[in-house]
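Morning. Coffee machine broken again, so started the prediction first thing and wrote up yesterday's gels while waiting. Chain of 282 residues, entered below exactly as on the submission form.
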Amino acid sequence: MIRILTDTGSDIPYLSAGDIGIEIVELDIRFDDMAYDYRNDADFSVFYKTLTQSKTLPTTSLVSPGQYLPIFEDVKEKGGEMLVVTISGGLSGTYQSAVSARDMCGYDSITVVDSRQCAVTQRMLVEHAVKMRDEGQSRDAMAKALEELRDRLSLLVLLDTLTFLRKGGRIPSTLAILGEVLNMKPVVTVRDGKVEPLKKVRGAKAGVRALWDQFEASTNDPDWPVYFGYTHDKAKGEEFMTATKDKYNLAQCGLFSVGGVIGTHAGPGAIAIGYMKKADHN
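Came back before lunch.
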């Protein structure tokens, strides 16, 4: 059986990974000397509690070639095959680490795919790879499909606060303070593998409407599920998912906690929607 490996940028906890038969490597996130764990959703909650209490952001680091190499050597030794699906190369050097480790290993039956996504949309690609593997399709067919699908995925995120963008030095402190006073909520997306701002709105209700406007304009593919994400506030995520599901009569939905890779900069209280656009949508 083809082994599938992804990273914690997908927000698939270790326990869930075992259920669907995949392997996980970890982007390291640390508060001082304390490492953040990815075993289950309870660990995600611990992360956000620590994040809100910390004066500075945790340090984050990519998956190194040294983390990949023993896994790849094991695949080579056993004469197996592996498909690696990484967090977007525009957000992390993890993809390049995987390519470097594969080259060091010198084994042609390992394929590395840059998802150009993160969080729930990276998860969607990984789960599609699992489906194809379980149907008996080849590694090359799986990789080709993911590379064709990845740019049809759309991830929209509504941030609840500018605080953590300020802490990370991504926006000036004066802008963050003004934004908090005016109750500004940034809407961001992943485009060409990188996080880009879409707009800023005043208030949570306007933020949800902005997400819906973008969702309507994108023409989602009804053959694919629509995934929802949340940072720490599950009730908020459930409320958004239920309202969206009812508004658009969605048949397939999933709700997932967003972990520390994205949550470090998004902060608690964010909500997200990820979906597949129709193939003919420009």
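Residues 161 and 185 are 7 Å apart (CA to CA). Going to sketch it on the whiteboard this afternoon.
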